[in-house]
Amino acid sequence: MKRSIPLLVLSLMLTACGGTGVPVVSAPPPPVRVDMGLDRVMGHDARALIALFGNPDQDMREPPARKLQYASTVCVLDAYLYPPAAGREPVVTHIDARSPAGDDIDRASCIAALSRRKAAR
């Protein structure tokens, strides 16, 4: 037992100094991804949204921004479009989703519900 204490102290000192001889390997960071379903809207222009959802319930323009709003009995989706560069077509840079009562809801679920609504027409 008396012999194991100095070995334990020595191994703790080596570990603290990083002198274990074992390289430290860290896992790569997780990939950055757009939430599943949001990629159907984010980065797309107004034509793509109209193809996906149909004509918007509201189309508001305040140059250079544009907001398209789609509403159903399930949710309301606001898509905000801004040009990525001067003279370029505005694309969706942000979306909000809420229930008809105004409570925040999952954006991807709202996109799926609105997509199904257009397919049913």
Kindly describe this structure.
- It comes from Sphingomonas crocodyli.
- This is UrcA family protein.
- Keywords: Signal.
- Residues 1-18 form the signal peptide.
- The protein has 121 residues and is an alpha+beta fold.
- The protein has one domain (27-120): Beta-lactamase Inhibitory Protein, Chain:B, domain 1 (2-Layer Sandwich), CATH 3.30.1450.
- It has helices at residues 4-17, 46-53, 107-120, and strands at 58-62, 65-71, 76-82, 91-98.
- Strands 1-2-3-4 form a four-stranded antiparallel beta sheet.
- A hairpin with a 4-residue loop joins strand 2 (65-71) and strand 3 (76-82).
- The radius of gyration is 26 Å and the shape is globular.
What's the quick description here?
Keywords: Signal. The protein has helices at residues 4-17, 46-53, 107-120, and strands at residues 58-62, 65-71, 76-82, 91-98. With 121 residues, the protein is α+β, with helices and mostly antiparallel strands.
